[in-house]
Amino acid sequence: MSRIGVFGGTFDPVHIGHLIMAQETVARLKLDRLLFVAANRPSHKRAPGLADVEHRIAMLRLAVRGNRRFEVSRIEADRGGPSYTVRTLEALTRSTRGDLFFLMGQDSLEEFSQWREPERIIELARLVVVPRGDHDMPSLPPSIRRRIVYVKPPRIGICSTEIRRRLKRGLPVRYWTPDLVLHYMARHGLYGTGNRRR
To answer: Which of 17, 30, 54, 116 has minimal Cβ neighbours within 10 Å of its Cβ?
Structure first.
């Protein structure tokens, strides 16, 4: 049985923090491969101004180029509509042979009980949680705690929201995301970049 990581998110845009978190998880948990799954439309949060999923998938493909364990999945984009982790994991369980490990940040774990069918999610996959700073972990029922693995990568204070804010203000984001992704954003005018150099 292979060990497959599933890293879901909006990736709006993907940045080096995502890539470091993914690489650390692959190494620590000895994963055979890790799937980056861009949400078609996030179901659990409002995302005004969200870049089209096709752009986000294209940027992911550029970001993971050259890493043989990283793959980009179109599963949520092709399904359309709001994205639900439980549906994605069910589909992956049917189409792949292996143990699934679903990556999430600590902030997502704090909201996990509000997700669609959380008990079913933990039947389908182990949760791989990346702690955020020195914040305490939320109180969880034992059934969920038993299915969690914690991976603590190097602390990188970068997030997609801050990248978008900086771009709107005309501030540089070079080295926050791979150069190929920066060039893609500028070429397609994403996040107000136009043809400005970053």
So the answer is: 30
